[in-house]
Amino acid sequence: FSAIENAGFVSVSDYTGAASIVDSTVPRVWLAEPDRVRQILQNLVGNSVKFIGREGRIGIRLFADEAQNRAVLCVSDNGPGIPAEHQRHLFKLFYRAPGVDTVQGTGLGLHIVKTLVEQHDGMITVDSESGRGTTFRVALPLADSD
Description:
By secondary structure, the chain is an alpha+beta fold. Helices cover 27% and strands 28% of the residues. The protein has 4 helices and 5 strands; from the N terminus they run αβαββααββ. It has helices at residues 2-6, 34-52, 84-87, 109-119, and strands at 18-25, 57-65, 70-77, 123-129, 133-141. Strands 1-2-3-5-4 form a 5-stranded mixed sheet, covered by helices on one side. A hairpin with a 4-residue loop joins β2 and β3 (70-77). α2 (34-52) packs antiparallel against α4 (109-119). The protein starts with a helix and ends in a 5-residue tail after the last strand.
């Protein structure tokens, strides 16, 4: 996790939980601006850090989906999860789910992430269940292998 912190992705100086990078092998270049990818990762990991608590866990996985010609970035946590009825609103401008008043935020982060992903012809999805954590999956195009 310190490699991600050192790269400027997220500051976790008061974070005592654990994170792991499961797979970071992408055999081809993906078509994305590095600063925008950093912003996407900062937002997703930052949200996980805010919601999991000091003893939570974050997983980051980056892999190539050759069948779909996509680089896939998954950020998962074992936090409280997001109720199904709120998931469809997550990417709306200024949306904050009920019950998150004690967590710092403006409701801009996920909207910005979705906008950046779509500007790169990508797609973002969320898989979450109350009490079981959340996974955000970002898929961005891979460059042609020529």
